Amino acid sequence: MTSARRVYLDHSATTPADPRVVEAMMPYLTERFGNASSVHFFGQEARAAVDRARREVAGVIGARSNEIVFLSGGTEANNLAIRGLCEGVKPQGRYIITSSIEHASVRGICEVLERGGWEITRLPAYEDGIVKVEDVRSALRADTVLISVMLANNEIGTIQPIREIGALVRQERAQGRKHLWLHTDAVQAAGRITIEVDQLGCDFLSLSSHKLYAPKGAGALYVRRGVRISALNVGGHQERERRAGTEAVPGIVAFGAAVRLAREELEQRNDSARELREKFEAAVAERISDVVFNGRPERRLTHISNISFRFIEGQSLLISLDLEGIAVSTGSACSSGTLEPSPVIRALGRNDELARGAIRFSFGKDNTAADVNYVVDVLSRVTQKLRTLSPLNKVKVSSSEFRVSS
């Protein structure tokens, strides 16, 4: 029997639509229903709304509006950036540098390209979950065409040194390496940290609306002016011929409203999430033994806490928490359904047991201290019960080894 109380701590998977965002999009589901490619009044009304949203999205990352391509979400943005670039640069090289902790969509694209003859170097993220710029520099070759490293990790929240990697790319270009580009997946970072594409030095940056309290189905790719990509969707002239298909006007309008609110409320949301996360992690460390905190504490997004629980299968813990009304995740929502240990947690050097026992708690703007108290109470009780039943608990290991953050 499930609990009557519901606590949602899976905001990294998706966020509930903000009522203000829903209010902004509703007219474009009803009386303002035009196709933004039509030349009549209804179409031009929709076109004006798309243009406003494009300016909002561009503004939140310091870009020009004509550098924004609207898409269906972060996965399509990552596909268009990487595959769209690689389609056109084969004469310059077939070598890509990425990291071992990328989102499943980036990992998947790289695997497809690899099967097609491309070479991929996957850089380590070490125990702290941070890619080293020195490793990027060491991996560079004359035929490198793309570096793709996420701005912030979706499972452990670690913020990567993209500005420093961007500076390295600019340095290489200044020395004559013109065919080298930088892509960063900012789906988790947008609305959480300040982003300026010129400061980052990236050529592509991926965004998704449903991580920002907007409905699912809209995303965007920043493409630096002058950079050419091949369209994956063809058959229309939309998005400056970079993505064919009728624009999803309601979702795009919602996206624009969401990024505006995220920019206005950035500090407030971060302060609230940081306070709740610190309260949560302190209580877990005090009340539950044999835990490992994944990711460098001082260089994480404020809302993510990823914890490995020794002697427990993460899926069992997730289901037990769900029965108590608590929604969490064992990793990326795009990888749910797999029984394999999280590749991100494994990339930190954790063994399979710790990778399988990892749970992501991600806080949102509407969570409260009462939510934290309830979750910790339930977590303490449930972990004790699961460990009593678990065959993994037959091995006796000192708990002190696993209580320190790393």
What is the overall shape? Answer: globular
Number of strands: 12
The figure for the number of domains is: 2
Residue-averaged pLDDT: 93
- Number of contiguous helices: 14
CATH architecture name of the largest domain: 3-Layer(aba) Sandwich
What's the assembly state of these chains?
single chain
Q: Name the CATH class of the largest domain.
A: Alpha Beta
Question: What are the main properties of this structure?
Answer:
seven-stranded mixed beta sheet; Aspartate Aminotransferase, domain 2; 406 residues; disordered C terminus; three-stranded antiparallel beta sheet; alpha/beta; 12 strands; globular
Structural summary, described in words:
The protein has helices at 19-25, 41-61, 74-86, 104-115, 133-139, 162-174, 197-200, 238-241, 249-264, 266-287, 314-323, 343-347, 352-356, 369-389; strands at residues 7-8, 68-71, 95-99, 119-123, 144-148, 181-185, 204-208, 219-223, 291-294, 304-309, 326-327, 358-362. The model is unreliable at 396-406 (pLDDT under 50). It starts with 6 loop residues before the first strand and ends in a 17-residue tail after the last helix. It folds into two domains: 7-15 and 265-395, Aspartate Aminotransferase, domain 1 (Alpha-Beta Complex); 19-264, Type I PLP-dependent aspartate aminotransferase-like (Major domain) (Aspartate Aminotransferase, domain 2, 3-Layer(aba) Sandwich). The protein has 406 residues and is an alpha/beta fold. Helix 1 (19-25) packs antiparallel against helix 9, helix 3 packs parallel to helix 4 and helix 10 runs parallel beside helix 14. Helix 4 (104-115) links the parallel strand 3 and strand 4 (119-123). The strands form three sheets. Strands 2-8-7-6-5-3-4 form a seven-stranded mixed beta sheet, sandwiched between helices. A three-stranded antiparallel beta sheet has the order 9-10-12.
